[in-house]
Every structure is written in C-alpha cells, then in structure tokens.
Hints:
5 helices, 10-stranded mixed β-sheet, 10 strands, Jelly Rolls
Amino acid sequence: xxxxxxxxxxxxxxxxxxxxxxxxxxxxxxxxxxxxxxxxxxxxxxxxxxxxxxxxxxxxxxxxxxxxxxxxxxxxxxxxxxxxxxxxxxxxxxxxxxxxxxxxxxxxxxxxxxxxxxxxxxxxxxxxxxxxxxxxxxxxxxxxxxxxxxxxxxxxxxxxxxxxxxxxxxxxxxxxxxxxxxxxxxxxxxxxxxxxxxxxxxx
Length: 203
Ligand SMILES: [Fe+2]
C-alpha cells in the first residue's frame, strides 16, 4: 500500500530516533514499525481538540521528528488518552495521545506500543506506573519530569527511560510538550495504575 510522503518521512524519523536509543528494544521497535505494513489506508484525519496547540508546540522546535510530525499532522489519528477511563475528567482533558503501533494498530504489533503524546500548558499528569518498559523522547516544549527519584526539567531532545513499574509524572508550566513514547516488555494496559501522589491534595 502506498503511503503519503509526509507519513513515510515520519516513519523514517521515528525509526532513526528509536535506533539511536541505547537499548536493543529501541531498534527492535523501529524494525517492527518499518517492516510491518499498515492494514488500512493512511488518509486525512479530522483535527483533534488540541490540533492548533499541537501544531503551535511543534512549530517552535527544530527537532527533525518534530518537523516530520508537523508535516504529517493532518494524516494522524490524534485522540484521547487510552486510559482516560481511569482519570478524572479534568486530568483526561489535558492530553492528547496518538498511537502509531500496538496490538490494536494502526500498525499491528503484538510486542510493542509506540506513539506520541501532547500535554497542555499548566497541567499535571499524576504519578503512575505500568508493567511495560517505557522510553520517552521530548520533541517540543518542556516539562518538569519525575522518573522514580529523579525530578528535573526535560526539553526537546531529552530521552527518559522508565523501567517496568517505575513511578513517573509530568508537570507543564507556560508551554506544553510533545513527546514520542514507546513500550516494550509486558505491554498490557491493565496494569496501568495511578499511584498515591503527594502532589495531589485530596479535600
Ligand atoms: Fe508511562
């Protein structure tokens, strides 16, 4: 199946970035993405709620994958967080998630999940964990990033690895962020758990 050029360029940039990760699972995910045909046609998608905000965030970045993502934006099925049923409506409304590969597609893989996330300015994604090993690469914008005991600001080019069950959380200030994410290992979603979080004050 012939893909539109912006989508092909996006796949190439994702593959290059994943292959640069110093873990074999990064290159394995890249190979799966590039070798597995998508069973459905890649065609223009309706804009998501955050479409203008995502474009604005990406437009401020020189990262090659951010540029490729921006160029392919109207071909990509950005949607809601797949685990939004476990979040408060306010928390679920602050992010958009795009899945490129996983057991449910659009590129099918029984072993890996891969996609992008956008998080709006002035928001907090609470402490959570899951069975899967996970790597994020920030492509545009920035966030205060908690990965286990390590909390620091992460901007474009930052690669952060969360081993299985490591607690992680993100806080944005005056700009949001766009990041690539990938899962390997045990990629079940049932283990995705929001944890007791000292940043959350329960009235
Ligand atoms: Fe995660």
